[in-house]
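Hello forum,

I keep getting stuck at the same step: I have a sequence, I want structure tokens, and every attempt I make locally crashes halfway through. Rather than fight my setup again tonight, could one of you with a working pipeline run this one for me? It's a single chain of 340 residues.
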Amino acid sequence: MKPPVLVVAAVVLALSWSHAAVAEPQQIRMATLAPAGSPWVAVMERAAAEITDATDGRITIKYFTGGQQGDERDFIRKINLGQLDGAAVTSAGLAMIEPSILVLQLPLLFQSEAEVDYVATKMWPYFQKKFEAKGFRLADRGEIGWIYFFSKSKVTSIADLRKQKLWTLGDDQLGTSVVDKLKLNGIPLGIPEVDAALTSGRINACFSSPLGAIALQWYTKLKYMSSTPMLFAIGATVLSLDAVKKLSAEDRAIIEKVAKRNQKKARAVIRKANVDARTTIIRKGITIVDVPQPMLDELTAVAVEVQAELVGKVYSKDELDRVIAYRDEYRAKQPKAAAK
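Reply #2:
Ran it on my machine without issues. Output:
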């Protein structure tokens, strides 16, 4: 799953990058697939309230949660039309603006959160410039977390995997490439369609973070979860440059201060929530299935093939080389942290 996502620090930092000097009250209209009451939305709303108080009501942030504004393709379209100012999106939404950011979410690329943090921190300013060239501000990094394979029947081999009716995102070039390489039975659906598809039997397997599986109630229709995560899913808030430019210098300074105070805290909240969610779904009856080494070896080999195959299609060779070099640089400095 590239479940919906995400972190309020992204919102507040993005707003801090404005250059205009307008002190009029302004409402920032934001969309997210994250359900109301989820940890993602709770964190965003707390920081939004802080922003409103700190700016004496000059800035308010209105969130349309739970897919009220459609799916992430709808979010990006509505931002371009001026119907929304921004959105907190998964990597799928980010890739609709700039596909190359998917180089940070390749399967089996990272083995620890520390690796993710190191590489993403190095690469994020580069991607912020690419998004700006597309008319968007890419705010600080949010995340969904480690993504696991969930299914109704036990899967312990690639042969078992090929028997599943597996949910895929139709616009996800990365996921589509993996599905094609492994000759899987992929069923393309939007995130809001997954719950009904699991209920009806149209699909019987999907990918998700533990927190996403709980927030979207997918876990109630599934029985098994892989022991090994397939990838680490990122996300972020994006805003149109037009919306960002409407903020005053004073409000920019206030929002930037809030951003610095919240950005790391927000990721920590989601990471703890994922740990707690894993415990919860096990208690509720989900069985963790060990991924046998032969299956993991085959998945790893395919992941490497996919990395090379997407060069020139999704990201450049230089971008892939930089990500791998930063990852290996981290492992050389912290070899013990590389083992998960």
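The chain is about 50% helix and 20% strand. If your local run keeps crashing, start a new thread with the error log.
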